[in-house]
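Dear support,

Our group has been running a series of protein-ligand predictions, and this particular one with LANB7ZPL is the one our PI (initials K.S.) wants archived with full inputs and outputs. We had some confusion internally about which version of the output was final, so please treat the block below as the authoritative record. The input we submitted was:
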Amino acid sequence: MKILVINPGSTSTKIALYEKEQSKLEKTVRHDSEELEKFSELADQFEYRLGHVKEAVQEGGWELHELDAVVARGGLLKPVPGGTFEINEKMVDDLKKARYGEHASNLGAIMADSLRDELNIPAYIVDPVAVDEFEEVARLSGLKDLERISQSHALNMKAVAREVAENMGKSYFDVNLIVCHLGSGISVAPHKNGKMIDVNNANNEGPFATERAGTLPAYNLVRLCYSGRYSEEEMVKKVIKEGGIYSYMGTKDVSKVEEQAKSGDERAKLVIDAMIYQISKEIGAMATVLEGQVDAIVITGGMANSKYIIGKIQKRVDFIAPVKIVPGERELEALALGAYRVLSGKEQPNIY
Ligand SMILES: Nc1ncnc2c1ncn2[C@@H]1O[C@H](COP(=O)(O)OP(=O)(O)O)[C@@H](O)[C@H]1O
Ligand SMILES: CCCC(=O)OP(=O)(O)O
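Confirmed final output from the archive:
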């Protein structure tokens, strides 16, 4: 059984070919900012990213018509529980219209849907960005017009949390973890007995990240929006694509900023240390959500490759619980296994 896996992220498209549960090829196509800036709308990246996906299938020595299924990262959808979902018309319509917001992951189901039509094969998403397992108390923001919305790196956080729990000789459903995904966006989530009961919205709140502004001073933000200096579109770009490290340093490459800091650039050091400070504060806050009953703090994502970042976070938070590091991500595997569970009849797919 041949499964094509597609994971569009903000700075990359990751592609894998799976034969049942076995990975046969994994490829990461990096997209630098200049390359993506050629497309004015996210939807315009469709042909370009799909071209890379088709090329990877050929590189793996497979023909498109040999594929039995396609699975992709799910994007900003209506709030849904965790699990595998069949891609359907309603889902693709919501994503094409960006009804719940714009994010690169929206392209996953759109590309998979087009391959489903072309090849007449089933198409799925697994644990999309919109997974919502919030406790009711987590939904209030402080302003009745604005509800807090769960949008996070649910796919990787859940896959890594299962792996860490297993390594601790326990089930994911029997542990309390604080999982931090440090990527282009940052998610910090308390996972209580297998449910992600809160998370900073990675597009909207929490620590600043590579390109996200995170939580901002609300009153001053309103004043900036109405200052006449920026259009709505410019403000959205500022907080989602040009905030965080990029806003201060003009690059989205955190390892470059780290090198600058190490070679004596005071500004670079301050910026990277401020991000670390905010991540650690968020972990502390999430420890209170779990009332201090934390079995482990898990740090994952691209930035978990950095010894500098990990070491400094660890110093601030290891009084709470042991810190486990899982660099990179397990998203491709989690997608393939989620699709295979359905294809092999072990699980029923959810309907959107
Ligand atoms: N060795 C490293 N040291 C520091 N930062 C790193 C390292 N490797 C990757 N990163 C950073 O991780 C981020 C990308 O993480 P990733 O999880 O791949 O992101 P995405 O959310 O785009 O999928 C980028 O900001 C990149 O600079
Ligand atoms: C919107 C939550 C998911 C997210 O931020 O993903 P990336 O880090 O891949 O942009």
